[in-house]
Amino acid sequence: MPHRVVVTGMGALTPLGLSVQELWDGIRLGNNGITRLSRFDPSAFDSQIAGELKGFDPEPILTKKEARRMDLFLQYAVVAAEEAVRGARIAETGFVSPRAGVIFGSGIGGIQTLTSQHDVLLKDGPGRVSPFFVPMMIADMAPGLISMRHGLRGVNFATVSACASAAHAVGEAFRAVQHGHADLMIAGGSEASICPLSYAGFCSMKALARRNHDPQGASRPFDRDRDGFVMAEGAGALVLERLEHALARGVEPLAEIAGYGASADAYHMTAPDPEGVGATQAMAEALHDAGISPDAVDYINAHGTSTKLNDVTETLAIHRVFGPHATSLMVSSTKSMLGHTLGASGAIELIATILQIRHGWVHPTANLENPDPQCDLDYVPLVGRTADISVALSNSFGFGGHNASIVVRRAP
Q1: CB 404 within 8 A of CB 262
Q2: Model pTM score
Q3: Among 97, 252, 344, 367, which residue is least crowded by beta carbons within 10 Å?
């Protein structure tokens, strides 16, 4: 019989703050983490705004020497996981098990290290390239470093599926615990790709919002005036474990992961299937896996990117899965307040979903001032609301047609 899987710890680094509590405070206060880009001079770029982490310092979690040997995305991953581990009281309860592991995702990995070391190669020659270049760059080093830090010898790998990376990591970790392959897993995602090369690539695709005069109004999911997503950075980490395992440790579950669905559009490199077939399949499979009927869902944390294509196709997919109940659902986009954290977004937004369930309050979709006629659901525009949420769904869809949906419900 499959095991029930609960979340016992969470960690977050986002443009709204450097902890789960700061993320929640920012959401509740209606703050917006999007500003003019400060990491480099953006004046030559069409888009000049981003959701950057403000005031991040890896100490005291990492020593200066450790931090120098990690790309920024690795620093984010390790620090977010540390908060989740502390929240789950893993060391405090004396937890030791060879059946504990890490699955952690990143859509892009260490691109800042890649670009900086390429400059070294061109300027100073191959002998000056850092011996830490490769391990600092590759995406799988995030779960590797987390496992080394906490002595977790179970299943360990990285998911790299663009903007669905973290959701796939959580979903696969859920599967490992659900089917008895692990007692406990750390899962999530990290991204630190705000650098000239990646920014130029997204600008060339015309994927980024160009509302440079109004950074905080630039991410506007489901609004008719949206013109692209806002690039952001950060990390989210969750500790998942068997319900009976958590109770035996004396740890209070924060929420229950009830189901997971994944699919492929098999359609286009960057554009979603216009009929929403893949998104429909992922959501339907997640509900089936959870044994939950569509009309039992109270809230959906939408992928909600603020791009012309995604918001329409996600709306269509929700209609297809939920039928008449779709108009009764509350739907909102966390990206409207902190931008799109790419490979980290699935974990960060799942954490935001769990916080909303626990506090009985749904955050708004910011900047939804002029609804797109093709986006006709209750997106909780502009103002959050008190709501009793028993069951929620978190969606993540990525370039390449990767789709993942996770069902989460109130802790038992």
Answers
A1: yes
A2: 0.97
A3: 252
Q: Each residue of 362-377: pLDDT tens digit?
A: 999 999 999 999 999 9
Strand partners, 10: 238
Render the burial of 143-174: b for 16+ CB within 10 Å, e for the rest. Answer: bbbbbebbebebbbbbbbbbbbbbbbbbbbbb
Average pLDDT score over the chain? 96
Structure tokens at 127: 């002998």
268 is an active site residue: no
List beta partners, residue 255.
7, 410
Residues 6+ apart with CB under 8 A from 274: 309, 313
Question: Which listed residue (163, 195, 203, 375) is catalytic?
Answer: 163
Radius of gyration over every alpha carbon of the chain, rounded to an integer in angstroms: 20
Residues 6+ apart with CB under 8 A from 317: 276, 277, 279, 280, 283
245 flagged as catalytic: no
In a 3-state reduction of DSSP, which class is residue 118? helix
Active site residue 303: yes
